[in-house]
Amino acid sequence: MTDKTAIVTGGASGIGAGIVERLRADGFNVAILDLNPSETDDLAYRADVTNVEEIASAVTSIRNKLGPITVLVNGAGMEKYRRFRNLSFEEWERIIDINLHGVFHGVQAVLPDMLEAGWGRIVNISSSSTHSGQPFMAAYVAAKSAVNGLTKSLALELGPHGITVNAVPPGFIDTPMLRRSEEKGLLGGTIDEHVERTPVRRVGKPADIAAAVAFLVSEDAGYITGQILGVNGGRNT
Ligand code: NAP
């Protein structure tokens, strides 16, 4: 058990919600930052990760309630399917803003607590699409690839301060995001058809990602930093 305080952005749905559940079971005090958080969860705060003031205000409230934040999981994200020639710069900017700048703002907001504590764990949820690229998802893949690069650079910079920084790129996890894409016919087949091409022969679950995150934020993972730990059922190797 631990009394450490964690923040999970995007913790109201899908993978983020699975991470919140797991970290709470592991004994962390876990607060959620999300666009539409549950009204019944006392530790859920509304904040858009692209909005510096909203993040700062939520982080201050969380710190006052739960103490210094030494674990951050950047899970908030949004995808966009659009042929590149039809992608407007405004759409490109919005996807970069949520998926990349959201990570920048999240880390900036909690880093003083981690530096003060001389201990911290940051896990960035990127995407398996970064392994090989993905047609019609240029902005999203560019942003998530940048998150992987940011992860490696921060690991080198923050390692001497006792802070590890790793990324988990999920592949094909059964969440509202994946179901929405299936409904719109954007997956190039149904989820069941994809399962037949997935080496472990099942779709991933938020708990699969949560298990990897739980390890990376644990004391046991203190010698692991700057790593990109794919959790994708063998779809990407
Ligand atoms: P999800 O069910 O849609 O959850 C994403 C959460 O992030 C939602 O609660 C969403 O709020 C929130 N969010 C979006 N934009 C935000 C913003 N600007 N500020 C704060 N919160 C915001 O999707 P998921 O599948 O669990 O995805 C979680 C993460 O995994 C994302 O970063 C995604 O890119 C990544 N990922 C998922 C898969 C997969 O197979 N599912 C694969 C690769 C990567 P709203 O619902 O209100 O918009």
3D structure, described in words:
With 237 residues, the protein is an alpha/beta fold. The protein has one domain (5-174, 205-217): NAD(P)-binding Rossmann-like Domain (Rossmann fold, 3-Layer(aba) Sandwich). It is 45% helix and 14% strand. The protein is built from eight helices and six strands; from the N terminus they run βαββαβαβααβααα. It has a six-stranded parallel beta sheet with strand order 3-2-1-4-5-6, with helices on both faces. Strand 1 (5-9), helix 1 (14-25) and strand 2 form a beta-alpha-beta unit. Helix 1 (14-25) packs across helix 8, helix 2 (52-66) packs parallel to helix 3 and helix 3 (89-117) runs parallel beside helix 5. The protein is globular. The model has no long low-confidence stretch (mean pLDDT 97). The protein binds NADP nicotinamide-adenine-dinucleotide phosphate. NADP nicotinamide-adenine-dinucleotide phosphate (NAP) binds at residues 9-10, 12-16, 34-36, 48-50, 75-79, 98, 102, 125, 127-128, 170, 172-173, 175-178.
Short description:
The chain is α/β, with parallel strands linked by helices and 237 residues long. The protein contains 8 helices and 6 strands.
Major beta sheet, strand line-up: 3-2-1-4-5-6
Q: How far do the termini sit from each other?
A: 34 Å
What is the CATH C level class, in words?
Alpha Beta
Helix content: 40-55%
The kinds of small molecule bound in this structure are: NADP nicotinamide-adenine-dinucleotide phosphate
Shape: globular
User: For the residues shown, what is the average pLDDT?
Assistant: 97
Describe the largest sheet: 6 strands, parallel
Strand content: 5-15%
- Tally of structural domains: 1
Subcellular location: Secreted, Cell wall
GO biological process, one term: monocarboxylic acid metabolic process
Domain Ketoreductase: 4-171
Family: Belongs to the short-chain dehydrogenases/reductases (SDR) family.
